[in-house]
């Protein structure tokens, strides 16, 4: 409440006159802040914010607007890229709502606030002390431990920045665990002395990080000598004179009308201290007075299922979207519970639960014809003095009602009594909906004719079983253990193979999904093996060039320390090669995992959970061998979107990095030419002896990784490491060419055109297939058709040379015709037999055979 509303009397003048305290700095400081006194051995005076929504009832639009605007300023300071990598941390209890609003202003940053409420089963990710507070211990309890583990900017939000000790303690604790390059401190007011400002700069230099400061106003508090002792004496005198008498005045003091412009209802003439006395509406423990008004009316908000009630365990942009969608209906339910003639309505939040009540109040403000204000209860004891020049006019005292970890104690609501509210809506979380809540409700009922209670479900993170560590060679796969970790479960002992014809018929009839079984592993003939080795020898240099180029793009555009996550299994050899290039060229030891993605079923969500728990999602780069028509590209984007909505974890970039992008589906690639990648010629024997991935409900539970088999018995035919070594051996000779190619690609317009998808749709119609899933474009996909499915025919671009030797051989062995096409955007396209049954025939009239 600013001075104009308060008839020109600053709400800090009472303290300033008696203790000689001065606010120096920006002229708006006295609009933003008032002063009060409290019983505290370290600091008697209290800066009381008029726009925080804690002690002083204020328009929710003003409260939210200050935080949201500060968030905009942070976003402008960081820029779009850094904002996407940022995490916002607010301080309990006073800044939990402010921090939320700042995160909303940044728009793309997840939010976490510290808490003084331990939650069983949730591990502590950090903690720190607030030296001048009456309750010092702050806990950090993120549901997703990776929330604080990233390297992006950490934005720390508090209502005031006084000595800087709290921020230093926070940074010191977190920087030791999760070092980062940049911090941003946000506050409504920066009230540090010059010496304190210097300490922060010295600390930033000491840890080697940049620290920025964003505040709505700045200044300092000038304290005369002996102010602590004088303040303590003043508090003791006023408390002894009037507080704690238990008297509930029947009429409001005339001075209160300036702060709360409403019809006056009480008169404090009975107060022994008169109009400038201490006003404490205290509920003595064990002496609960009966409410003077009607019983509180409960409203079922229908809070969205599994939506966090705040940032205690993390609140993501996806959570924010869900809340925005639900707010209008919830506010409408509150409005229905209010009396029709209500002109002044107050929303009262509950200690750390500031954001949900604030958003409800702001939404209600838009739809009712009444003045709506907002504040919250607090555990902070502050002296109440009824004087226009004092920030805390009245105090309601009641027992704690959420079974606090530090035991029972008093809690407070300020400036509610005597404010003339027609209705007060108390918003608490279900943890605070206890029999002790009657204390607060009874106090409110004594000062307003209508009390409404809305309970928000307390969010407690579920604790799924711990995910296992990745499988590694030689126990699982023929790759060295450091080359790749498989986020899969080993199904080697399960019989999953089925004859090709049976699988095809079941898949096309809708009786089974292709990921529920495995094709019989193709064992190449001696002639085919010779083709593979010839192709590898001829293509190794070309492959090395593409590997180097795509890796350089990733390092330049995605992350300097990427986490490579290959899509098993075709992407895994490419992921290993990219890891080897980063090590060869830059000395980097990049993490590399292989995960399962299934068309129509999405990516393995448990694998994403593992990655989010161990790495910054923003560093994850998904890797595949090649693109065909781009189905997996679209599948991954949809799956990541669904995962963000279900788990609230953001940061994963669905843009795939591929060796070859003939379909023009991605912007991160080594080449867009459709050429033979020898790893496509074989199945498990060039992919670490690992099968395709399997997703079947009787084998893969809700907390399991997808499955795969390790074909140990094929070790004699395994060329997986030989393939990798042959390509990596060419790295030195292509190193200069990679530099040139990467520079060209970085400067080029690589926007996907989806040319391949359009071609597949055209071919599907021209050949009467009418199903794009049965059209497999490109050398790699065509090879898969011949090795795993029932092929109908092969379309080959006229003039295609050695890149198709192995395709022609496989087609000949299976009796599949190869049709040359003059204009084809791919080197070849494989067509799966449409509407296949085991009695189907090929284009030549012969039965299709394996």
UniProtKB/TrEMBL annotation:
A molecular function (GO) term: glycosyltransferase activity
Domain Cysteine protease StiP N-terminal residue range list: 477-727
Domain of life: Bacteria
Keyword 4Fe-4S: no
Domain Orotate phosphoribosyltransferase-like: 32-219
Domain PELOTA RNA-binding: 754-833
Residue ranges of domain TRSP in the record: 309-444
Transmembrane segments: none
Keyword Zinc-finger among UniProt keywords: no
InterPro entries: PELOTA_dom, PRTase_2, StiP_N, TRSP_dom
Keywords: Glycosyltransferase, Transferase
UniProt name for this protein: Phosphoribosyltransferase
Origin species: Streptomyces hokutonensis
């Amino acid at each position: 409440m600013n001075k104009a509303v308060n008839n020109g009397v600053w709400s800090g003048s009472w303290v300033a006159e008696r203790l000689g305290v001065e606010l120096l700095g920006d002229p708006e400081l006295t609009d933003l802040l008032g002063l009060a006194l409290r019983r505290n051995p370290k600091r008697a005076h209290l800066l009381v914010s008029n726009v925080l929504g804690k002690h002083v009832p204020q328009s929710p639009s003003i409260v939210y607007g200050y935080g949201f605007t500060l968030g905009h300023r942070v976003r402008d300071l960081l820029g779009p890229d850094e904002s996407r990598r940022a995490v916002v941390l607010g301080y309990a209890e006073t800044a939990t709502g402010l921090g939320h609003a700042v995160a909303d202003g940044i728009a793309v940053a997840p939010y976490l606030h510290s808490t003084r409420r331990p939650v069983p089963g949730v591990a502590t990710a950090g903690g720190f002390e607030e030296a001048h507070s009456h309750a010092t211990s702050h806990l950090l309890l993120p549901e997703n431990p990776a929330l604080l583990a990233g390297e992006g900017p950490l934005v720390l939000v508090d209502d005031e920045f006084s000595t800087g000790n709290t921020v230093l303690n926070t940074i010191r604790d977190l920087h030791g665990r999760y070092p980062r390059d940049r911090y941003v401190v946000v506050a409504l007011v920066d009230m540090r002395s010059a010496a304190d400002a210097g300490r922060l700069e010295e600390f930033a230099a000491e840890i080697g990080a940049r620290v920025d400061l964003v505040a709505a106003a700045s200044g300092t508090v000038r304290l005369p000598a002996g102010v602590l002792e004088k303040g303590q004496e003043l508090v003791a005198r006023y408390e002894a004179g009037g507080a704690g008498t238990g008297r509930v005045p029947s009429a409001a003091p005339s001075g209160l009308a300036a702060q709360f412009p409403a019809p006056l209802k009480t008169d404090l003439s009975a107060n022994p201290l008169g109009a400038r006395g201490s006003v404490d509406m205290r509920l003595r423990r064990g002496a609960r007075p009966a409410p003077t008004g009607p019983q509180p009316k409960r409203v079922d908000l229908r809070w969205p299922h599994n939506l966090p009630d705040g940032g205690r365990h993390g609140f993501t942009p996806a959570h924010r979207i869900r809340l925005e969608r639900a707010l209008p209906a919830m506010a409408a339910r509150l409005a229905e519970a209010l009396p029709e003639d209500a002109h002044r309505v107050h929303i009262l939040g509950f200690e750390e639960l500031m954001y949900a009540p604030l958003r409800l109040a702001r939404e209600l403000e838009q739809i009712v014809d009444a003045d709506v204000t907002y504040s919250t209860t607090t555990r902070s004891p502050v002296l109440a003095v009824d004087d226009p020049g004092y920030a805390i006019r009245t105090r309601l005292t009641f027992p704690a009602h959420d079974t606090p970890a530090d035991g029972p104690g008093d809690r407070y609501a300020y400036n509610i009594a005597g404010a003339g509210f027609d209705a007060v809506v108390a918003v608490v979380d279900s943890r605070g909906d206890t029999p002790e809540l009657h204390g607060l409700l009874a106090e409110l009922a004594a000062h307003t004719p209508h009390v409404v209670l809305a309970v928000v479900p307390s969010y407690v993170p579920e604790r799924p079983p711990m995910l296992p560590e990745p499988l590694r060679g030689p126990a699982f796969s023929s790759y060295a253990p450091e080359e790749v970790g498989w986020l899969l479960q080993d199904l080697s002992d399960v019989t999953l193979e089925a004859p090709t014809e049976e699988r095809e018929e079941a898949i096309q009839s809708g009786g089974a999904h292709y990921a529920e079984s495995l094709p019989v592993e193709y064992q190449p003939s001696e002639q085919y093996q010779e083709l593979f080795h010839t192709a590898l020898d001829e293509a190794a240099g070309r492959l090395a060039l593409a590997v180097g180029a795509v890796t350089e793009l990733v390092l330049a555009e995605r992350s300097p320390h990427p986490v490579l996550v290959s899509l098993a299994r075709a992407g895994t050899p490419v992921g290993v090669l990219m890891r080897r290039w980063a090590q060869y060229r830059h000395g980097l030891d990049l993490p590399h995992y292989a995960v399962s993605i299934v068309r129509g079923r999405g990516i393995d969500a448990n694998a994403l959970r593992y990655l989010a728990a161990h790495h910054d999602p923003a560093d994850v780069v998904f890797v595949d061998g090649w693109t065909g028509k781009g189905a997996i590209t679209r599948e991954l984007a949809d799956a990541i979107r669904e995962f963000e909505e279900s788990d609230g974890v953001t940061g994963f970039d669905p843009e795939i990095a591929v060796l070859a992008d003939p379909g023009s589906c991605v912007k991160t690639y080594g080449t867009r030419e459709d050429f033979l990648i020898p790893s496509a010629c074989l199945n498990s024997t060039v992919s670490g002896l690992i099968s395709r991935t399997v997703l079947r409900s009787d084998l893969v539970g809700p907390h399991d990784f997808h499955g795969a088999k390790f074909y140990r018995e094929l070790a004699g035919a395994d060329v997986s490491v030989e393939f990798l070594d042959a390509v990596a051996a060419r790295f030195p000779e292509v190193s200069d060419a990679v530099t040139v190619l990467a520079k060209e690609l970085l400067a080029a317009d690589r926007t996907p055109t989806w040319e391949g998808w359009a071609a597949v749709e055209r071919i599907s119609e021209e050949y009467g297939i009418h199903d794009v899933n049965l059209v497999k474009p490109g050398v790699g996909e065509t090879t898969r058709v011949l090795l795993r499915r029932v092929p109908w025919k092969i379309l080959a671009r006229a003039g295609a040379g050695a890149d198709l030797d192995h395709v022609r051989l496989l087609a000949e062995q299976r009796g599949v015709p190869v049709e040359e096409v003059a204009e084809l955007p791919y080197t070849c396209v494989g067509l799966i037999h449409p509407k296949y049954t085991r009695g189907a025939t090929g284009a030549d009239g012969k039965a299709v055979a394996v």
